[in-house]
Amino acid sequence: MNAWGMGIASKVTAPPPLTGSGKGKKVAILGAGLAGLSAAYELRKLGYRVQVLEARPYAGGRCQTARRGFRLRELGGEEQLCRFDRGHYINHGPWRIPLDHQSTLHYAREFAVPLEVMVNENDHAWVYLEEGGPLSKRRLRGAQIKADMRGHVAELLAKSVQSRQLDVRLSSEDQMLLLDYLAREGALGVGDLAYKGRSGRGFATNPGAGLVPGAGTPSDPLAFGDLLAARVGKVYSAVQEFPMHATMFQPVGGMDRIPQAFAARLGDTIRYGAEVRRIRQDAAGVTIDLHDTASGQASSVKADYCLCTLPLSVLRMIDTDFSPGFKAALKAVPYAPVGKIGLQMGRRFWEEDDHIYGGHVLTDLKGINTISLPSNGWQQRKGVVLGYYNYALDAIEVSALSTAQRTEFALAAGEKIFPAYRSAYENAFSVAWHRVQYSLGGWAEWNDAARRDAYPLLLEGEGRVQLAGEHLSYLTGWQAGAIESAWQQIERLHRRASA
Amino acid sequence: MNAWGMGIASKVTAPPPLTGSGKGKKVAILGAGLAGLSAAYELRKLGYRVQVLEARPYAGGRCQTARRGFRLRELGGEEQLCRFDRGHYINHGPWRIPLDHQSTLHYAREFAVPLEVMVNENDHAWVYLEEGGPLSKRRLRGAQIKADMRGHVAELLAKSVQSRQLDVRLSSEDQMLLLDYLAREGALGVGDLAYKGRSGRGFATNPGAGLVPGAGTPSDPLAFGDLLAARVGKVYSAVQEFPMHATMFQPVGGMDRIPQAFAARLGDTIRYGAEVRRIRQDAAGVTIDLHDTASGQASSVKADYCLCTLPLSVLRMIDTDFSPGFKAALKAVPYAPVGKIGLQMGRRFWEEDDHIYGGHVLTDLKGINTISLPSNGWQQRKGVVLGYYNYALDAIEVSALSTAQRTEFALAAGEKIFPAYRSAYENAFSVAWHRVQYSLGGWAEWNDAARRDAYPLLLEGEGRVQLAGEHLSYLTGWQAGAIESAWQQIERLHRRASA
């Protein structure tokens, strides 16, 4: 175990500072996703002769952006042609870059990919519960829940302090300080310590010009009992966990601007349409047998080393001479069923009617999870809404629908929340990642046993073959996982090649 | 009192739907700030002959953007020439558009002014207290305070519930629901209901690739007692009040894109360099005496009506024939002393070193209030930081400094929080709005007595003269206040003109 493996890796914000030279050595990199691209880019700097073999006709792997003309055929499904208006798109793979993911941001900076804010938390967006007890089927603003729960809880605690029920728990000085904090935090009334609403939950009538009630009409808080019975915590949390933040980033124009920037620099180092059929290694090197997806012709590539970034879901179906133990490890990891749909809307009703600018509508509507509103094209005429983002059984069920049925499914849900949803709808593009060739799933979903047994084995690689990708990180499903895994594994590969 | 004054105004998101015609009638509009510009734009649509008289050589009033070449001479002060690199700027007047301000957004939409997100709340930004008791002079992330206060309060309340201290306050069913909520909200331990930190406060070491501790090293929470004693509530609040939101908007390229869009459409309807010296009215019309700031020549403009949008701080010093009562009302409103400084930094150390992308560093450092980080040019080399945003006595004190001293004041404070602050500094541009000619203050600061007595009188106007501006709204200091006041007052003016 090296220094990287000891956790320093997770603090790095730049590729490993490798010394020595890879001159005269050839590395075949399987897959032109973020892992393969960053490995190729860095290894080439060290002097390695690099060839990236990519089955798709473009770079990026799961980092895809559907815009006008983009085609996708799921396994056993019809071909979809994206018909969004020019300038509109959906990032149906990765769609947000957290500030904690300095590795992803590193390449955006290095390649001068313009970024814009992706609004990831919007307290003004609706929370809509089908099963929300007394608050069922009502459009609530996140800010209402946040302000009111905070207010009621603060009032409850403050009154307990006031009636000396917390004497056993807190010193009287801390009680005074706590009362002061609670009064601010919960916007409690002076004297009566009661929560009666606050402007942060929204006004009934906003302040404006004019006379009465120019100062704004307060709105009444939701009742504490109703909020508790609604179990709003099911969908709404006021503190987001790592690596979520209220504001994240997206490349201007689409997430695929990042792999495109790599691809432009790597040029014909990347061979497209090269589907890996067989991997063999011996003392002399590695041989990759390929199937050209355009011509149908077979060919072979020989290299001194191989960095395989194919998802395990794909790699385990390829003919290899890995040891039985390694092959078993490849099979130990389930892949996430994940579905998304982009709906082009002819009118930005969420902005115009509801004054919601980006962020997620949180809901317990089955198979929907979130309706996410675009963080680009503010106030323009049209926009592409993410109509669902489903996982697990939901994703499997929805993926069994035809593309037309998926659209209907999304519209039927969305119109419960937005009256204009169906009438504004123009066209759709959906994906079910577990049905996408060369991906076969959204991301690796490790369980504890596989993390313990299979993960260290896979990290080691076998012979001249190393693996890399989001699956070999604790940032599964994130581009940063792919990049940081690649950074770690090229260090390992370089160490072996230099030994 | 009309329907507008009854509060409908504050819900409007578009100009009033006026009918009839202003043909053959001339309106002199004093001031080309947002109020004057929107009034001119709308009145012209109705057929009025409109002339906007503006003392400055450009439109926008206090809506200004300092970029390379921008000049400002404060009263009794030296002339500042902005030396920021091309592409960099500071909005030293209004700098953020809340989603609640649909009137401002209305014109951004109408004129297709591109908007981008202005990060107004960033839990990753530092909170730095000089007087923070046990937490003094430490750089804390907002997320740490938020997560830890939430966690400790949830634990305290949950344990009180558990030990049946709240039986008198809540039914046992509500207590169960509350425990469930608190456990989620505070990330409490299962069983022991203890708060021990959470990933949302940040890791000691982030998850990444590799083995141990690839899953991320947890960070220890701040002690409840320390947080209470630090009185973090002084600067930090987890619920923002109206009209603040985590994400707001700014026009791409500078706030003055909005007045520029108006000015382009109004063309020579606006007469620049026209300083108002005298206002007289009689039964036949209004006469405005002007001083041309370029030639020094005097001239007069006659009109049927006048809409005066000059700040009251300016208007009350002009020779008018208003009644004594009206003149007294003009004097009833203090104007806010406000100061800002833009500091061009040669390196975006807040992004590169601290991973803070936009938002505000909150501090009790005297005279600073906030250090705000730019929401544009993400990951580029340089950026302009707002070094202070001070009000009241602080603003007066700092404004008495020379521009070089103001810079030193800002740097001495900032380097307490950011080690690279001084070394990265390149040049500065500061403003003290109370010392700016034609503005004489940041915004109107109404007290209750003046709202009761002077405000209704000023809203009525006198004779052929109506007033408008942020000062005649409950959105003082906001562009929306200026626009919505203009919308209200042109309706009044049109009603009188049509009578």
Automatic annotation (TrEMBL), chains A, B:
Reactions catalysed, as given in the entry: L-tryptophan + O2 = indole-3-acetamide + CO2 + H2O
Lineage of producing organism: Bacteria, Pseudomonadati, Pseudomonadota, Betaproteobacteria, Burkholderiales
Family: Belongs to the tryptophan 2-monooxygenase family.
Enzyme Commission number(s): 1.13.12.3
The protein, known as: Tryptophan 2-monooxygenase
Domain Amine oxidase: 34-488
PANTHER family registered for this protein in UniProt: FLAVIN MONOAMINE OXIDASE (PTHR10742), LYSINE-SPECIFIC HISTONE DEMETHYLASE 2 (PTHR10742:SF410)
GO MF entries: tryptophan 2-monooxygenase activity
One Pfam family, short name: Amino_oxidase
Any single biological process term in GO: auxin biosynthetic process
SUPFAM superfamilies reported in the protein's UniProt record: FAD-linked reductases, C-terminal domain, FAD/NAD(P)-binding domain
Key words of the record: Auxin biosynthesis
Pathway, per record: Plant hormone metabolism; auxin biosynthesis
Main EC class the enzyme belongs to: oxidoreductase
Organism encoding this protein: Massilia arenae
